[in-house]
Design goal:
heterodimer, A: alpha/beta, Rossmann fold, 5-stranded parallel β-sheet, 12 helices, 36% helix, globular, B: alpha+beta, Double Stranded RNA Binding Domain, 4-stranded antiparallel β-sheet, 6 helices, 35% helix, elongated, Methanogenesis marker 17 protein (chain B)
């Protein structure tokens, strides 16, 4: 079986459709396409053995293919509030950097996540964070505050958490109980853009920490694979439900590690989706849960594992 | 350009202290207050929890008068104001309308304001106060401190008068004598009495 690896293609608009066709022909999937002026970025999954072929085809077009470990994941960047204290730096810089590594990031600004004693998390925030593959908590400068407030703002979160804060990694590991999946020290509340080499190195460290955490989850998934690979389901959806192509969202269908977020209203499209024929005689409802998302009125598709359905599309 | 003479941050948490030093420097620079704040002393202890900032302002910018940005030419039939810098044009026009009436204030182009002869004397026009930057400066300094302080510290007491300022904030209720116990000693070390 060919292994699909996440890559980013960066190149010009000119003849980029040839690259898209090539990826399609090779059995890969484009999960996200960004057109920025004359540049195109394609976040895609391609067979490992064919990366060199894509590089060769892209050469005359001055396109670059780079491995992007976070393609096909949706990550929540959680900021204690949307006040000027926490934004735009740290939270936005982190979100932007994760995007460069291929992730689809959403910023979650908590209503009352500030303060060590008064911090809390409401049910909507909790549910929205839980709809992601991973949450990055961008916390502040004081050890004391991180220790006291984190239990309150992680209450009920069951997705992996990566915490950033000003204390060094060892201190974070020591003060956070129960432990979280990842720690990045030396990134606290800052008031300037990340631009010095040591600051950018911290962001690289964060990407590494996030991909390490997600790789662990991928390994679990490899042991009990999903009934359908999310980008594959995404391709089927885009082909069969024409309304998806008419959405103006940058990512009308967002690929996650274990499902998809479809930006169509749940009340009108949920039944259509459940009845969608994914393969011969297999309905989407048989292999996945079609759920209302807490994010607007979107649809969240959670794909069931093979062990539960006995179907592999 | 005169630089901030002293920025001192104290905290029992060394990592936090360094971070707050950088935050304070960044905020003052962003809000263009480096030239204005002469001394800033911050003490922050998340365990109490308390945030105290105290300091001195360098000099207050003086009031802006018409002759700072315009030439007044008295002619036989009319008085012409030749505007060199448009920054304060809007408040100038508002002042002129209020004082001489809209019908007497004509603005043929961006850089010229014309008044009929005789409504205003040269001296009177030249010395007219158009804006006072110190009014907004006070707000800017307090905003900067609010911005530097940890966000959860919502309970606060602030003071700015005669070139001295302080800002005390906490997550809990502030004790009534906080100014005497925490702020006054800082001013003492600066050699200033509150």
């Amino acid at each position: 079986m060919t292994t699909l690896v996440p890559v980013t293609y960066k190149g010009g608009v000119y003849r980029h459709d040839e690259i898209m066709d090539l990826i399609d022909d090779l059995g890969g999937y484009v999960v996200q396409k960004h057109v920025m002026a004359q540049d195109v970025v394609l976040q895609s999954f391609v067979p490992r053995d064919d990366i060199d072929l894509i590089r060769e085809v892209a050469k005359p077009l001055a396109g670059e293919v780079a491995e992007a470990p976070l393609v096909g994941t949706e990550i929540a960047v959680v900021s204690p509030s949307l006040e000027i204290h926490h934004l735009p730096h740290t939270a936005c810089d982190i979100a932007e950097y994760l995007r460069r590594a291929g992730a689809k990031t959403n910023m979650v600004g908590l209503a009352r996540g500030f303060g060590k004693r008064i911090a809390n998390l409401n049910d909507e925030e909790r549910d929205i964070i839980n709809e992601h593959d991973l949450a990055v908590y961008a916390l502040g400068n004081f050890e004391e505050c991180i220790r006291e407030k984190l239990p309150a703002i992680r209450h009920g979160i069951h997705v992996p958490i990566v915490v950033t804060g000003a204390p060094d990694r060892e201190t974070l590991v020591r003060i956070i109980d129960p432990p979280v999946e990842g720690y990045v020290g030396g990134v606290g509340r800052i008031m300037h853009r990340f631009k010095r080499p040591e600051e950018l190195a911290k962001l690289d460290e964060l990407v590494e920490e996030v991909s390490r955490t997600l790789d662990a989850r991928r390994d679990d998934l490899a042991r009990d694979p999903l009934s359908v690979f999310p980008p594959r389901l995404m391709a089927i959806l885009e082909e069969q439900i024409y309304e998806v192509t008419m959405l103006t969202h940058p990512t009308p269908v967002t690929a996650q590690m274990e499902g998809l977020r479809v930006k169509l209203p749940y009340e009108f499209y949920a039944d259509d989706l459940r009845a969608l024929e994914v393969a011969d005689g297999v309905m989407l409802g048989d292999i996945a849960d079609v759920l209302p998302s807490r994010m607007r009125n979107y649809i969240l598709i959670r794909i069931k594992p093979f062990s539960e359905t006995g179907i592999l599309v | 350009m005169p630089q901030l003479k002293q920025l001192v941050v104290e905290s029992p948490d060394e990592v936090g202290r360094e971070a707050y030093e950088r935050i304070a420097a960044d905020v003052l620079q962003d809000l263009d207050l480096v030239k204005v704040v002469e001394y800033l002393h911050i003490y922050v202890d998340p365990k109490v929890p308390i945030f105290v900032a105290a300091g001195r302002l360098r000099h207050m910018p003086r009031a802006i008068r018409v002759n700072d940005f315009a030439n007044v030419n008295i002619g036989e039939k009319m008085t012409v104001l030749d505007i060199a810098d448009e920054t304060y044009l809007a408040p100038l026009l508002r002042k002129l309308w209020a004082r001489y009436g809209k019908e007497n204030v004509d603005q043929p182009d961006r850089f010229t304001v014309v008044l009929p002869a005789g409504v205003a004397g040269e001296e009177e026009l030249e010395q007219m106060v158009v804006a006072d930057p110190s009014e907004t400066l006070y707000k800017d300094v307090i905003y900067a401190l609010q911005y530097i302080a940890p966000e959860g510290f919502k309970v606060r007491r602030q003071y700015i008068k005669g070139g001295k300022f302080y800002y005390v904030a906490s997550e809990d209720t502030l004790p009534g004598d906080i100014v005497e116990t925490m702020v006054a000693p800082i001013f003492e070390r600066m050699g200033v009495t509150l």
